[in-house]
Amino acid sequence: MSKTFRAWKIDEPLFLPATVGDFVAQDHLARFVLSLVRDDIDLAEVTGTYGSERGQPPYDPIMMTALLLYSYCCGIYSSRRIAKACRERVDFMSIVALDAPDFRTISDFRKRHLKALGKLFGQILQLCETAGLVKLGHVALDGTKIKANASKHKAMSYERMEKRAAELEAEVAKWLSAAEAADAEEDKLHGRDKTGDEMPEWVADKKRRAERIRQAKAELEAEAKAAAEAKLKAAAEVEEKREAEGRRKGGRKAAPPSTEPDAKAQKNFTDPESRIMKSKDGFVQAYNAQAAVDGEAQIIVAHDVTQSAVDSGQLVPMTDAIETNRGRKPEQLSADAGYCSEANLEALENRSIDGYVATGRARDAVAGTVKGEAAAAPPEPSTAPSASEPADAPTRVEAMRAKIKAGGHTSPYRLRKQLPEPVFGQIKQARGFRQFLLRGFEKVRGEWAIVCTVHNLLKLAHGRSLSAALPIAAGAG
Fold first, then answer.
1. pLDDT tens for residues 35-84?
2. Are 439 and 148 in contact (CB under 8 A)?
3. Which has more confidence, 471 or 95?
4. Distance (Å, rounded) from C-alpha 242 to C-alpha 235?
5. Of 264, 307, 331, 345, which residue is 20 to 30 A from 353 by alpha carbon distance?
6. What whole-number distance in Å separates Cα of residue 36 and Cα of residue 128?
């Protein structure tokens, strides 16, 4: 059987300019991300930074933004791996149109626009709500420990710092003293063009390390002093309020907080702003990543990162962040026992939010037992019963425990794990984000914002694909 081949004309180009359609299908995620970034997202904060420069940016900022977001969607975070994918994977080629940036360009773009990329969270969240994926009927709050880009073995306790710094300084002093006493001999050893006073590399390294240890020690002392001053200020405000209300505080006066760091307080030399935290994998050098998840489609409606290993201080800021992001408060909010305290429960009451905060283990709370009860924070002085209240009035923690027991297994309380845990599973297991690439608290916050933005972006892509498929399925039926 004969075959007919089309003959190329001499003046006809063999290769035509590449487009997205040449590589990926109409419903491919790469096409969706590129279209979304180009048509639906305002990138003025990114593109505006290039207006005052001569010439044009080396790569289109819109393309670079789409490339980064798509890479995070695929679980590829390293700039070198992204650059490699641009050369080897057709879906990445469709975004860069065969003009692959190198890894340094990708890395510099991410660092330069980290804050602006993190702010895309609000725009994507607005698109999710427009698509009907956010209702704020119920929001669950939780945190997860994510490893910092630092080893816990590069940390040192406050107690050890003074001893080690002194040891290093003594070694350097000993060497300098020996060098000074043997000038003549060292002139012969090092030659006439050398003074004999040059310090070996190991001495300079020890001096630098001693200086870093002294600096870390001073930072711990400053942090301890600031924490003590803040605690004294808060106590003074509470006492002033109590006196104004005519209430007296019983019991012995508490000792003033110490301004000295705890002997076991640690500082990491690779990422000094990260902290040692306990996780399922034991003690790790990490940050505590927070997420508030909407019950409609597991959309993240608020996020943040904290250096504290405990979650209790994050309930109020995260709740307020939800209102800031969406302009209204959630109707219900659930959280695990780490967020339980009298002050937090009072804050939910003051905001007219129906709260379901665990006071202990889930099965014990529903059963009404207190076995395995988590140690809830003690009642704040400002929330203690006043003289006009009954002496046997239940605390808010006790009232929450009774509320959860009365609701049983049908209570919204169960959503405290059913909503955020799958989200963290998708981020850490499915997309492999188990460790921050960047170092420093503010950079880590920006990186977590991008991760949360991408999670919502994938939900939006799935929601639109599903909505497009429904009419087709209905017509086929």
1. 999 999 999 999 888 866 566 667 899 999 999 999 999 999 999 999 99
2. yes
3. 95
4. 10
5. 307
6. 12
